Amino acid sequence: MTALLVLPALAAPAPTPDIIHYRFDEAGTSVTNRASNPPANASTAILNGALSQGAHIDGTNLSAALGSGAASSTDYVNTGWATSLNGSWSISFFSSEIAPSSTLFYIMSDISAASFRIFTNGVAGPNNWILRGPFDDVLLEGGAVQGTTLNTFVYDSAAQNISAYLNGVLVNTVAQPAPISVSGAGPFKVIGYSSNVGLNAGGKLGDVRIYSRALSSSEVTDIYNAAFRTPQVLTFSAAPAVSVNSTANVVATSAEPNSGNTIVYSTASTDCTVTSSGAVTGVHAGTNNCTITATQAGLEIPLPGFQEASATQALSISKDTQSITFTSTPPSGASIGDTYAATATGGASGEVVTLVVDSGSAAICSIANGTVTFSAAGTCVINANQTGNADYEAATQVQQTIEVGKLAQSLTFTSVAPANAKVGDTYTPAATGGASGNPVVFSVSGVPQAVTASITAKAAADVCSISGGVVSFSAPGTCTIMATQAGNEIYAGVEMSQVVFVSAAAAPTPVPSLHHAALLLLSLLAGMLGMRKLHRKR
């Protein structure tokens, strides 16, 4: 036969009341109403007279208000609530140390609401509670005793009956002849009714709950079980830094002893998400806009068991950062008059990336509809910006730098350099320049032929010279004629050159010379020729 292992079910938390929930676990006379939706003027109750709070209900984890035995004209809890119970409703409370007496003890009432009240002794009998009002009485036997009891009355308007539960167990159901509506001017009193005694001296009343709906039997049981289990205490570590689209972990710990169950995280916020293990991701930025709830399930056995516990932590989700990237490549040889289509992409905010010329470059370039026009030489800086929004910071500005050069201009020689220049020759160079309008200026430089012993250093240096626009060639070598035109704010300077090769001048034809003997003979022959002509004349 196979043995079955039955695991204990995890305990459910007690349902949260929406009208009144007093735990009486504070100091002083103020009692916080921990209901989810307290009525007007009922967020805090006041202990009057000799009533006190903070007493412990034996065997439970509950605190209680302590009765004084005095008349409730002075000693009562003023809830500030003008009684209004329409439709279904439920009333639940723990009591202990209730002594049998000939005196009636009233623990809840509103005399203005058709004398709605709960009391013991008298017609209720000792040890019992009775609910009385504008409906048929409902008796809860065994609830008003020395021991600790949970007492619950549930009116179901659909079934039109009131059920009484003792310690989570149904003990009585009373059908009602007509729909019930309980209302009055208030104040609704706890531990009191008119001027009657509210609670015997030393009597305890705790965990008072009023709901505007009918509790189920399982919910009544949950209230009972929760009171007898050890509470668990969850504590969050310091809140992590979380921004939109980033993830960080929240951490809650449970004080020992505890149920040992895994702490599970959840959130109802739409500004963040969280995994069950505590990884929080930001969705929208804000201050304390992400509330994380940590929950640790309770445990029923081994006794006394543990209550379900929860704690919350509020996180502020910061904005995400975003960046800009230029998607266009700037021209490497931009000149005045050129254009360039600049483009860039931004971050996830979806805001437009704006491109503007940096203020320091306003004289160099301009931009319109993403097209950059270069109007002067210098450095053109384009700034890219993207604004943020509710979830994203503005992007850090990104710059793109473009060096803009001057326009080129052309220079053309209109004269032809001599092909066979010789020392002593001259040449008048001429050239037309570019759009700068500046004059064309000529200069020369020379490289002489190899220097020999017969050529002086000065002669070697003065291959050519220029004066009045005329180049004179004065020594053999290479003469470079340079034409230069200066630039301006728009056009760059330009120069061109001509090279002339200069040779030496032609040598004169030499006259032959005769020896002195030949000259004497020539003279004699001339003389003889002359005498012969003379004789013929005679």
From TrEMBL:
InterPro entries: ConA-like_dom_sf, IPTL_CTERM. Coiled coil: none annotated. It comes from the Bacteria. It comes from Comamonas piscis. Pfam families: IPTL-CTERM, Laminin_G_3. Residues 509-536 form the IPTL-CTERM protein sorting domain. This is IPTL-CTERM protein sorting domain-containing protein.
